Each structure stands twice: as C-alpha cells, then as structure tokens.
Amino acid sequence: MKDDSGQDRSRDKEIETFYNDYSRSGPLRKKLRRYFRSACWFVKMKLTPISKRCFDLILAFSLFVVLSPIIAIGFVISGFSFHHRLRIGKDCVSYNELSFKVDRARAGNLVGKLGLTNVPILINIIKGNMSFVGPRPMSPGEVDLKDKGMRRRHEVRPGLISLWWIRRRANINYGSELSVDLEYVDNHGLFTDIGILLRAIPAILLGNTAPSSDDKLTLLGIPIDNLTMDEAVDTILKWLKGPDSKQVCFVNADCANIAYKNASYLEILKNADLCLADGVGLKLAGKLLSRNIAQNVNGTDMFPILCERLSGTDVKLFLLGARAEVVQGVVDWISRNHQEVQVAGFHHGYFSPDDERKIIETIRESGAHLLLVAFGAPRQDVWISQHIGDLGTRVAIGVGGLFDFYSGRLPRAPLWMREIGFEWLYRMIQEPGRLWKRYLVGNCLFLFRVLKEKLSPGK
User: Does 249 have pLDDT greater than 50?
Assistant: First the structure.
C-alpha cells in the first residue's frame, strides 16, 4: 500500500503558505517579517559597534581613575615619561600607541613586571584608536595593503588583548595569526569581547612566559620531543618518505600516571621515535618545572592537518581500533572532507588474539604507509611496539579517542573550553562513569608527582 503521508504534508504546507501570503492578514505578516529582519540588521550593524564602544569607554575610564594615583606616583618617584610607537589602526589609519618609558635606575624592574608601562594605552582606547579586544596592533612595516585579508583585518580597531594571543598562551595556535584575526572580524561584538576577556584570565595564569629553546624535555622520567604542531607534522611527513618504521606516541597526564607505575610502558615511551606533549596537564607540568612546552600537540588536532597535507599524495592510510561503526564513520569523514586521501583499509579494534596475525597481514598487504591505532593508552603503544617490525608501515601512531570524535560518536569540546584548558572537564561530563577517576583523581595525582619532582634534591 502506497504511503501518501509525505504528499499530504507537502500539500498542507502549500495551503498554509497560500493562507499566510494571500489572506487578509497575510500582507501584514509579510510586512512584519520584513520589519523584523530590518530591525535585526540594524541591531547587528549599528548597535553592536556602539555597545562595544560604550563598554570600552566605561572600562577604560574606570581603570584610569583607579590607576591614576599610581601613575602620579610613577611620574614623581619612578621617572615616568611618555613613549610613542607608530601603529596601524582601524581602516589602516596610523596612530601613536602610548606607553611609559621608565627610568630603571629609579624604578627598578617592578614597574615592568606589574605591566604599568602599558597603562597609557587606556588613553588610546578612550580616544578610539584601540579597543580592549581586537587584532594585535601592527607597525607599518608589518602591514601589506595589497593583501585583501590584511585590509579586512583592519576593519576593526586593534586590541590590547587578541584572540590570537589567547591561543598562543593556550598553545593551540595551529592556524595563522591572520586567519584567527579574520575569525574575530567576522564574529566581533560586545559579548564576543566579554568572552575573550574572561578567557584571557586563565591564559594569563597558565600561559608560558617564554617558549623553551630545548628540543627535548623530561617530565616524570618521560622524554618529550618539544615540537610545535607544524614541526611534528613535518617530521612525520619526512618519515613517510623514508625506508624505516617509526613509532609516534602522544603523552598526556593519564599516560604519565600509567608510566609512573608501569616500567615496561615507560620503556616504550623512552624508545619511541617521537613522544609528543598532549594536553593542559603536560603544559602545566612544564611550567611548574621551568621546562616550557612549545605547543599542545594532540592527535585530534593533528588528524585534519595530516589529511590536508596527505591529499593528492601516494601515501596510504590504515585505521585500526574502536567499534566497527565508529571506524567506518572516520572513513566516511575522510571521504567527505579529504577525498584525495587514500585509505588502504580499516578494521575495528575488538578482535581476539587468534585473529591478530591475520590483521597484521591485512595491514602489510594493504600497502599502507601510515597506521593510526585507537586502542587507548597504554595498549595502543604497547601493541605498536610489539608488532611494528611486521606491519610494513613507515609510521604508526597511537591516537587514543580520535576515532570517537571524527566518527561523530562524541562531540569535541568547544574551542573556548580548549582555550582555557578545560577540555578534560567537557570529556568527563560526556562520560562521567568512565572518566571521573581518570580526571578528578588522576589529575591531582599527576600534579602531586610533578611537585614532588620539583621539590626533590637536585631537580
């Protein structure tokens, strides 16, 4: 029997549309909708900049009043004088950015550490040269007016705090500064600014004061390759062209806790060809131990970058792990977003020991160059270490829960939560029964061990 429910719904919709448009009240409804859309446009295009400007003025005047006694004392005691730096502002109009020049013989280093030399920027904000939030102020030599993106970047006022600055402090600045600035230009407004200012607080508390120049660090006995995301991806791509088999491991706080008690797992991490710092826990540990982590390099963020770089090449990819429908979902994601990436094969992770040899042969016969294994730590790294000589791949990487995110089984934490280092909290809320102990107990235990290492003699 034919189902006509779809046709009935379509016919009802047509009747409803006809009534709304041509009944006696129809023209009034259409006119109200048009007025509503116009009002929304007016709010977005006219009132948003006004509200943002009012917020800047109120906050700048308030801070100026609070800090004025300190400024007065600074002029009398510390030898303050005004310093000017030429900057390019909104609509590419130049202005002089103000700061204090300090007589260090009289003021010492305290003024610089407290950031008081930047107080005159409040005058720039009051005058309208700058905003509290916006792209970083640039000097004339940094601005290429022939670049369309660069011109669009200057459609808004430069800011004291920028979205790019927050992501640099959070060690997740994988894109270019210009792309992040344009992201802000497309979404700027009062509530966006307030959100960025709130996210700046943990960025100041957790952010590195200076990048480490060490290529190798040791945290809780684990050797960490202190690379940025771009450097890690470049290294993997170079290895994919070579003849040898390489193992890549990601290390987060949970991995460090496991390695602290599991000597065989710790030995695998020590012997890995690349060991990368993953997550806010390792970043905080590096800060506490004065061994700053260059960047938060994790598999979930690396995966789309690798896919982009592998598109159109002869490198073949094999996916191993998770449930059958999950790994299939990752393959579907690749086919939708990176059609030129070659997937040599895939297999779920729920196989018996009797099937292990068959799976290894499948991977070898597929001709895959890059193998991603999602068994969870430490099993994935142990499995790769045991079988890397038989797999025939050039690079094998343990990727943890990556497949869950790209299959769509679990949503990724919003970017603002990653910027403030709270992705772990989002994950725990998603799966509290499985992850509460790992994060609530494990994170405290990890920090205790880091502090113990810091306070140990000779450290």
Answer: yes
